[in-house]
Specification:
It is a single chain. The protein has a domain at 18-52. The chain has one helix and two strands. The chain has one helix spanning 40-55, and strands at residues 18-21, 28-31. The chain has a two-stranded antiparallel ribbon. Zinc ion (ZN) is lined by residues 22, 24-25, 27, 37-39, 42.
Length: 61
């Protein structure tokens, strides 16, 4: 009789989600997936601001 040692199963962690600190408004929220922003709204706003910065090019004279 052979005793096969089974690997200890990883302890079930109560994975409620990932803590996300919004890069835009700074709010901390729990999301199912890691994200940079708390919501699509913030993501869009941050993106628009980024674009606005990029678009801030001097006009040709
Ligand atoms: Zn936010």
């Amino acid at each position: 009789m052979r005793y096969v040692e089974k690997p200890t199963p990883a302890a079930k962690t109560s994975t409620e989600g990932f803590k996300v600190t919004c890069d835009h408004c700074g709010e901390t929220k729990t999301k199912k997936r890691p994200a940079k922003y708390c919501s699509d709204t913030c993501r869009n706003r941050a993106w628009k601001e980024k674009q606005g910065q990029k678009a801030d090019v001097p006009t040709n004279i």
